[in-house]
Amino acid sequence: MSDLVLVEDAEGIRTIRFNRPDKKNALTRAMYSAAADALESGDEDPSVKVFMIAGSDGVFTAGNDIVDFMERPPHVGGGDLPPVERFMRALFSAKKPVVAAVDGLAIGIGVTLLLHCDIIYCSNRSTFKTPFVDLALAPEFGSSQIMPQYLGHAVAAELLMLGNTWGADRAYQTGLVNGTTPPEALEETARIAARNLAAKAPGSLRTAKALMKRPPEDIVERISTEGGMFAELLRSEEFAEAAAAFMERRKPDFSKFG
Ligand code: COA
Predict the structure, then answer these.
(1) What is the mean pLDDT of residues 187-215?
(2) Which end of the chain has fewer CB atoms at under 10 Å, N or C?
(3) Separation of 170 CA from ligand 1 center, angstroms?
(4) Are residues 105 and 10 in the same domain?
(5) pLDDT tens track for 124-159
(6) Whose CA is nearest to atom 35 of ligand 1?
(7) What is the layout of strands, in order, in the sheet containing 119-123?
(8) What phi and psi, each to the nearest 5 degrees, are found at residue 228?
(9) For residue 180, what are the domain limits?
């Protein structure tokens, strides 16, 4: 494991931390590979319930390492699965919930990756920018589709076309993030959300996430898909525990479920 990406498991939460502050956490091929390893192995490990992605003090990430980029330009979707694509595929196909804690700079893929997380907090000194057009490049990893879908076209164009820099307030107001905190409260705020998720019934949570990630479809189709999953979960041991806990007026304990 590269020490430029720190991976720590505690309380069912796998924290993946970008740790290259002298280069503003610019992401290299080795860092993407390390982060991809952590996501792929964690998604298969029953002791990992939730992922948390974080950066270092005052910097989430300044995006792709531009030197790395120029030396070995990746061709995403070109078939050879460059590390950046492996990481982003692992992130957007993660079955388990992903919480992000953004403190400071989030640039380029530092914003793009947030679109594939589930719960996002940022410190009130954070800034968000996707300077792709300013660099004569293009949006990446589904952001041209997802960002307008989540935030609306005109609002997304502020980032993806104008290349504006958003502060934490704008990020919250547009719905890019769930909340803002003082820097010193950020990690604990994100961790509380991660702990809450880690305590829930894992199969049920995976089902909710999978449903939320499905592409838009005919609502009758969706109702039928949900109904099938609901019926299956009604027969699950997780539901038996939830129902027993309700009857016994206690908190459910889902810790034995993977
Ligand atoms: N790739 C490679 N190196 C980067 C980097 C990146 N994306 N972002 C920052 N760095 C490096 C700088 O080259 C510098 O290295 P050095 O100390 O060896 O010279 C170091 O990180 C600190 O950056 P610096 O520019 O001195 O800090 P700053 O506080 O003045 O500015 C940024 C910080 C992030 C605003 C500025 O570095 C920047 O604009 N970086 C590029 C961000 C970007 O366009 N990312 C999208 C890529 S698609």
Answers:
(1) 97
(2) N
(3) 23
(4) yes
(5) 999 999 999 999 999 999 999 999 999 999 999 999
(6) 62
(7) 5-10, 13-18, 50-54, 98-102, 119-123, 179-181
(8) -65, -45
(9) 5-198
